[in-house]
Amino acid sequence: MKRSEFRKDIVSGEWVLFVPGRAGKPTDLAKKKKPRVPSPKKKCLFEDPFLNVDDKVILGYASRAHGDMRKDWELLVLKNKYPAVVPSKKRARKTPSSRFSESSPGVGYHDLLITRSHTKNFAHISKREAFQIFSAFRERYFMFLRDKNVAYVSMSHNWGKGAGASIFHPHYQILAVPIIPPDISRLLRGSSEYFEKHGQCAFCAMIRSEKKRGSRIVFENRHAIAFCPYASRYEFETRIFPKRHRAFFEDTPDAEMKGMAEALQFVLAKIEKNLADPDYNFFFNVAPARNKNQHKDTYHWNVEIRPVAGIPGGFEYDTGMEVNVVDPEDAAAAIRK
Ligand SMILES: [Zn+2]
Ligand SMILES: [Zn+2]
């Protein structure tokens, strides 16, 4: 891409304006940062979570079988101290929409997942621990499915202050909410329209086309593939997909989950090294928790990585259209390097 160009995401229907080269070399974007300094370990609340939040532990994995959880914990899922949504035994009903308003009670679950090391983020923990995070997400997912109030489960990670992490110690958010969020609705609608038109999963088609082209691929193993999408909304945005058609995160077999976790670790380590350690978010785009039959052929779960690079301005806020100053091919080459 030599000049500016508008590109449309075939699934979400969103347009993106590419202005390659506006910010100089692709990697210049991520080079302006100060070095990352861990917060003092002594003051970290997550160093002894049983002391600080004993009644809040929902789930824990220890480093050895029959280990003492308080001493040997490796991963814990805790109740969030300031939950955005709270569980309810009553069925949450949306108020009938009037001409002025429509609402739904703030019911759901808000968990916090923490791993043991104060400094090792997802890229640097062991393969086993990385898979454990995926397993814990899945375990909680199945718990949430039992609650009829839950429509969607969001799993995400913020790394660095610029990405919204207020605590340095690596931690992950799990939020189960009673509505299907707008970005997910768009993906669901777009992918089922695509299926109707072309008789195949849009994401599978995308994976095939990326494989053929090759230049936007960042990483591939037996079960997973990572690439910078054709219509990336953000600089260095990378998506990781299971290679086999898989609508549902929670039904993914262990071998494929491990492949996905490995791909995520690999890409994050590359981003850290080759883009000068930017802050980033990653999150899971999964199918809704209800009416699974509706999505089984059309949806394909994936993990999205979004390094913090450009700052949006008035144009983006006005139009809802992102401006991306890095050609996704250059982004992939810079990450792969
Ligand atoms: Zn810590
Ligand atoms: Zn698919």
Distinctive features:
alpha+beta; binds zinc ion; HIT family, subunit A; 337 residues; single chain; 13 strands; 3-stranded mixed beta sheet
How would you briefly describe this protein structure?
Helix content is 28%, strand content 21%. The protein is an alpha+beta fold.
Number of helices: 8
Using the coordinates shown, work out and report the CATH topology. Answer: HIT family, subunit A
How would you spell out the order of helices and strands?
EEHEHEEHEEHHEEEHEEHEH
Bound molecule types? zinc ion
Can you identify the CATH superfamily?
Answer: HIT-like
Spans where pLDDT lies below 50 across 5 or more residues? none
The CATH architecture name reads: 2-Layer Sandwich
The outline comes out as: globular
CATH C-level name: Alpha Beta
Total domain units: 1
Helix and strand composition category: alpha+beta
Task: Report the radius of gyration as a whole number of Å.
Answer: 20 Å
Main beta sheet:
10 strands, antiparallel
Please give the alpha-carbon distance between the first and last residues: 19 Å
